[in-house]
Amino acid sequence: MSRIVYLNGEYLPETEAKVSIFDRGFVMADAVYEVTSILDGKLIDFPGHMARLQRSLGELGIRNPLADAEYLAAHRRLIEENGITDGMIYLQISRGNGGDRDFVFPPEDTPPTVVMFGWNKPGIADNPQAQTGIRVITLPDIRWHRRDIKTVQLLFSSMAKMQAKAAGKDDAWLVEDGFVTEGSSNNAYIVKNGAIITRALSNDILHGITRAAVLRFADEAQMTVEERNFTVDEAKAADEAFITSASAFVMPVVEIDGATLGDGRPGPVARRLREIYLDESRKAAI
Ligand code: PDD
After folding, report:
1. What is the count of structural domains for the chain?
2. Which of 138, 180, 205, 261 has its CA 20 to 30 A from that of 240?
């Protein structure tokens, strides 16, 4: 069965969904995106993703062509039509077809291109990696300085991931001026003496929707949270570490640049936060 995708108001088999080669998303990476996870056929943290989408579009001056209720209806229809129980929906909005390739933005009335598609990822909440934890390497963060905007310029993130794989590890943490910014496609945390430490929000990192939820749950559970920079050495000496993202939820990290954290198994804070996050998110899913 061919997957049904959304393109500019239409629901089409994936082979029939065509976007112009002049689209600025294609030639300029002039586009933003969101990835929302689905558990039991319902959307996780959807309002947060909509709020960040609006912010990303606003920062780039791309008109938001749809209302949140329309995005929600489209997400639900894709879940329904594609029979997604556990999985993801990807949403991308580009500045549209500017005609000739030009560094100057096209006229403001150029319609943005809106694409949505989903996929099944059975058992995402029971990912076996959560039992063993992941191993990361560190790399210099050479991305641009507006990482708070969720653009489709993901080449370095992709290269960082490939470098981690080539080193036989799972992912990369990115480092700037000696401090960890975030993971290649996730936010990064360490735990020391019970305190959860993660970089504060700024233009240096993506404002993770999972991060916001996890920090709220940590606070509610009376855990100590310190939003501050941390170094690679501090991370290697931490009791435990973890990452968060819409696709990984809370994923323990057990090794950084070859240094094993604690006893090399997922730590209690990461395990507990994963459990709370999954429980609470399922309850709030829409
Ligand atoms: N990545 N930092 C970066 C650089 C990211 O790409 C992501 C998400 C996050 C976590 O954000 P959130 O909790 O809102 O998913 C942090 C998504 C999942 C992706 O690109 O597939």
Report:
1. 2
2. 205
Query: Which pLDDT band, with edges at 50, 70 and 90, does 240 fall under?
Result: very high
Domain boundary (70, 87, 122) is at 122
Q: Ligand 1 centre and the CA of 245: distance in Å? A: 5
Q: What six digits make up the tokens of 12?
A: 């089409």
> For 7, what's the count of Cα atoms within 13 Å in the CB-facing half-sphere?
13
Instruction: Please state, in angstroms and rounded to a whole number, the distance separating the CA atoms of residues 195 and 189.
Output: 10
pLDDT of residue 111: 97
Pairing of strands 187-192, 195-198: antiparallel
Are 250 and 188 a contacting pair, CB within 8 Å? Answer: no
- Ligand 1, closest atom to CA 49? 14
Residues 52 and 136 both lie in one domain? no
* Whole-number Cα distances in Å, 247 to 58, 186, 200, 210, 212: 25, 9, 21, 9, 15
The angle at the Cα of 79, spanning 126 to 97, to the nearest 5 degrees, equals 115
The residues assigned a catalytic role are 150
159-176 pLDDT, tens per residue? 999 999 999 999 999 999
Ligand 1 pocket residues where CB is under 6 Å = 35, 182, 185-187, 206, 208-211, 244-247
Q: 181 C-alpha to center of ligand 1: Å? A: 13
Q: Which of 245, 250, 273 to mutate to test the pocket of ligand 1 (most atoms within 8 A of CB)?
A: 245
Reported confidence tier of residue 273, pLDDT bands at 50, 70, 90: very high
Task: Give the residue numbers spanning the domain of 160.
Answer: 129-284
Return the structure tokens found at 109.
């009335």
